[in-house]
Write a structure and sequence with these properties.
The chain contains 1 helix and 10 strands; from the N terminus they run ββββββββββα. It is mainly beta. The chain has one domain: Sandwich (Jelly Rolls), CATH 2.60.120. The strands form 2 sheets. It has a 5-stranded antiparallel sheet, with no helix packed on it. The structure holds thymidine-5'-diphosphate (TYD). The site of thymidine-5'-diphosphate has 6 residues, from strand 2 and strand 3.
C-alpha cells in the first residue's frame, strides 16, 4: 500500500505504488495518496529536444507531477536554493506545494509529463517572472 503524503508544505516524492499483474502493471493517483483534492489533470508531450516547460510558480495551486512515459528533470526553487528531481518512473510523483518555482527540462524523446493539480486553470495564479518570485518570497508574500 502506498504511503499517504504527510506533508503539504514541502516538495517531496510520493510513491504511488504498483499493482503488479502478469498482464502488466497499474498505478493509481487518488486523494488517499496526495495531500489535495484533484481539480484538474493535464499532460505535456511531444516536447522538442532542449525545450523546457513550466518555468513558473503558483500562488495557490498544489500539484503532483509524474513521468507517465520517458524521463525529465523538475528543478524546484524556494527563492534561495534549487533542487533537481529526476522523474523516470510512472509509479512515483513529485508533490509541489504552492509558492514553489519549478521548471521541467531535459525531456527524453517521447516523454509524457502528467500533472494533477488542486485548482482549475487560473492565469492569475501564475507567477512567471523569476525576479518577481524571489522578491515575493523574500517579502514573505507567497
Ligand atoms: P503554460 O502554463 O505556459 O505551460 P507550461 O506548463 O509550460 O508553463 O500553458 C501553455 C498554454 O496552455 C497557455 O496558453 C495556457 C494553456 N493552458 C490551459 O488552457 N489550461 C491549462 O490547464 C494549462 C496548464 C495551460
Amino acid at each position: 500500500m502506498a504511503k499517504k503524503a504527510d506533508n503539504r508544505d514541502n516538495v517531496h516524492i510520493i510513491e504511488l505504488g504498483k499493482i503488479r499483474d502478469k498482464r502488466g502493471n497499474l498505478s493509481v493517483i487518488d486523494e488517499s495518496k496526495i495531500p489535495f483534492k484533484i481539480e484538474r489533470t493535464y499532460w505535456i508531450y511531444d516536447v522538442p529536444g532542449g525545450e523546457h516547460r513550466g518555468a513558473h510558480a503558483y500562488r495557490s495551486s498544489l500539484e503532483l507531477i509524474t513521468a507517465l512515459s520517458g524521463s525529465f528533470d523538475v528543478a524546484v526553487h524556494d527563492g534561495t536554493h534549487e533542487e533537481v528531481f529526476h522523474l523516470d518512473r510512472c509509479s512515483r510523483g513529485l508533490y509541489i506545494p504552492s509558492g514553489t518555482w519549478r521548471q521541467m527540462r531535459n525531456f527524453a524523446t517521447n516523454s509524457i509529463a502528467l500533472v494533477v493539480t488542486s485548482t482549475p486553470y487560473t492565469p492569475h495564479d501564475y507567477i512567471r517572472d523569476f525576479q518577481e518570485y524571489t522578491m515575493l518570497k523574500k517579502e514573505g508574500r507567497i
